[in-house]
C-alpha cells in the first residue's frame, strides 16, 4: 500500500498557490508528477500525494520543481481569488475516481496529441530537408550544365579556329602548287624551244622531254572502324564516380547470388518440406517441447516459401516472445494483423492472439499505453474473457501509478 503524504504546506495569493510536498529521496528522473485542472498527483513509491483543488487551475502556467527531497508546486489560478481551503472536501470516493480517470484520459490524449505533433514536425522537417536537397541538387545540376555549355562553346570555338587555320594553310599550299606548276610549265616551254632549235631532223615531235615529272595517282577514300570499351554507366569520364559505381555493381552481384542460393536451397528440400502447412505443424511440435529456436527456423523457411500466410507470422511471434525478442514479436504480430484483413468472425481468434502477444511485448518494453490499446482491442473481440479484463486492469493501475512497476 502506498504511503499518503499529509504533512505538506501551502500558501496563496490572489493569482497563485505555492505547495511544498516533502517526499524523501525524490529525484526529477524518478518522480511521476501528474497535473490537470482539477487533479494533482505525485507518485514516488512508496509515497503518494493527491490533491483535488477547490477551483480549476491553469496547467500551462503552472510548474513543479523537484530537488532535495521536496516537490515545489507553483499553481496559477484560472480566476483570481482567495480560497478558503486548498482542496474540495465534499468529494466522495466515486467522484474522486471519476476525476482521476478523467485526468489520466486527458494526459493520455495530450501525450497522443504531442506524439502526433512530433510526427508532423518530423515529416515537415524531412520535407523541408528534401526540398533543400532538391534545390541544392538543382543548383548543382545547373552549374554543371553551365560548365558543360562553356566547354562546348570553347570546343566549338577552337574547332572553328582550327578549320579557319587549316583552310588558310590549304589555300597557301594550293597557291604554292599552282605557282610551282606554272614555273615548271614555263621552264618546260623554254627547254622545248631550246631543244627544238638543237634537235636533229629525224627527232620525232611526239617524244616527251626527260625532265617532265610523273605524279603518283590520288589515294582512294576509306573509313576506319573504332570499337570503344562498353560501360555499364554511360557517363563521361570527367563526371563518373568509379568507386560508387563499382560498389553498386558488387552489391547487385551479391544480391543476385543470394537469390540464386536461396532458390537452390528450396529446390534441395523434400516435397513435404516445401509445404508451409507442414512446416507450421512441425514448428508447433517443436514449440510444445520447448525448442523455440528450431521452431523459428521452420517458420522462417515457411515464410520464405509463402509470405502471405498470417498463421506463420502469428506462431513466430509466440516463439520470439518466449525467446524475449520483443521487437521481433511486435513486428510479426503487426504483420499477422495486416494479413488478417478484413476482420471477420472466422479470423477473430487469430486477431485476439496477435493483439495479446503484441500488447504483452509492449508492456515488457514498458510501453504501457500501447500495450493497453492492444489489450482493449482484444477485449472488443472477446469482452467476457476474465483473464484479459484482469490484465488490462493491471496495466491501467501501472499507468495510473497506484502500484509500482
UniProtKB/TrEMBL annotation:
The record's keywords, sorted A to Z, are: Cell projection, Cytoplasm, Neurogenesis, Nucleus, Repeat, TPR repeat
Q: Where is the composition biased (Low complexity)?
A: 190-200
Which Gene3D superfamilies does the annotation name? 2.60.40.790, Tetratricopeptide repeat domain
Which Pfam families did the record assign? CS
Q: Where in the cell is it found?
A: Cell projection, Neuron projection; Dynein axonemal particle; Nucleus
Disordered as annotated region, ranges:
155-211
Q: Where is the CS domain?
A: 3-87
- Listed InterPro entries: CS_dom, CS_DYX1C1, Dynein_assembly_factor_4, HSP20-like_chaperone, TPR-like_helical_dom_sf, TPR_rpt
Q: Does the keyword Cytoplasm apply?
A: yes
Residue windows of the TPR repeats:
352-385
Ranges of biased composition (kind: Basic and acidic residues): 155-187
Entry's PANTHER family? DYNEIN ASSEMBLY FACTOR 4, AXONEMAL, DYNEIN AXONEMAL ASSEMBLY FACTOR 4
The name this protein goes by in its record:
Dynein axonemal assembly factor 4
Name its species: Staurois parvus
